[in-house]
Write a structure and sequence with these properties.
Elements lengths: L1 E5 L1 H11 L5 E7 L16 H4 L2 H11 L19 H11 L3 E7 L9 E2 L16 H19 L5 E7 L3 H11 L17 H17 L11 H7 L3 H13 L3 E5 L2 H17 L8 E6 H4 L6 H8 L4 E4 L9 H4 L12 H12 L3 H18 L2
Parallel strand pairs: 2-3, 2-5, 3-4, 5-6, 6-7, 7-8
Antiparallel strand pairs: 1-8
Amino acid sequence: MIRVYTQQEQGQAWITRYRGKRPVFACVLGFTATGLIPGISAAGATPESRQYTAIADAEFLYAGVQGQPHYPLPPLSAGASPVFISKAVLAGQQIPLMVFNAGLPVPPAIPAIALGGVPAACLSTGQALDRETVQQLFQQGLTWGEKLAADQDGYVILAECVVGGTTTALAVLTALGIPAEGKVNSSHATCNHDQKWQLVQQGLQRWQSAADGQQGRGDPLGVVAAVGDPMQPVVAGMAIAASRQTGVLLAGGTQMLAVYALAHALANFHHLPWQPSQIVIGTTRWVATDPTGDTVGLAQAVGTVPLLATELSFADSRVPQLQAYEQGFVKEGVGAGGCAIAAHLYQGWEQAQLVTAIETLVQHYRHSQI
């Protein structure tokens, strides 16, 4: 149920160490105006609905199926939200959940820890976030990473929900000097590489023409301020601090590779102690084998972090919205791949048990909407 794609020995050692251990799941929500650009993301059928995707996903993650949710899950052009995968695992295995608001247009309608962030402007501006806000979010990440890891017998799963986040990930990776063009993923069946790359080039050029726009020099937090999103410094800080005490599963694909690269750059620049060998990236098979991206190549370019993926398949699912994953839609989000990995590690769920739990939840939700 789990395949290690890069750094096999280190990845297998991590799996062995944390098998049977109960994790804690932390989901960090953020927003970037990049996600409002027409066609940039399929995580919400319209730009308007994408403003509420993270808020709706978080509500479902916390409360599950409700007759009248404050923020219903937005309709997708194809497929079903990856939050169904995450929720099925968290509920079925009683994994603790914490939700963090790093910067949303409106606060979620559930208990969430507000970190004092704000939504990011479009990365094409080269001025996505205020530098002081980014610094504060990073400090919050360090503080909460330590808290999440305290007294942990298991490990920490760090997840995200940021619509448009693969594009800010591409921008941050590129600004950090990692060749990521053409390698990232998206929620589309065929990745919109040209659209993403044009935005990234525009943002980096505007940043570099500004007074402090020295690519590859200075504090990596400046990169986030220029072309990033509010989730990135939080999760980078959490990963650095938590790795000192326990294992960390960065639950995601492109976005978590960017977070790891950012954490590595920040730890080096600020001389922060951390244990990168405690960290793995866990995603879905649909991301790891996406023919329109190169996740494995990107992981190798980022460095020595193991890339893990769940072998979860919906090829035989009786739910059409789940079968869409096998056509390349959605692929990942809200820690779905990490949760599927945890389901196998913690309580030994195999393919049939995991698919049944997800299908049951999707059908329950569909009946509640009638």
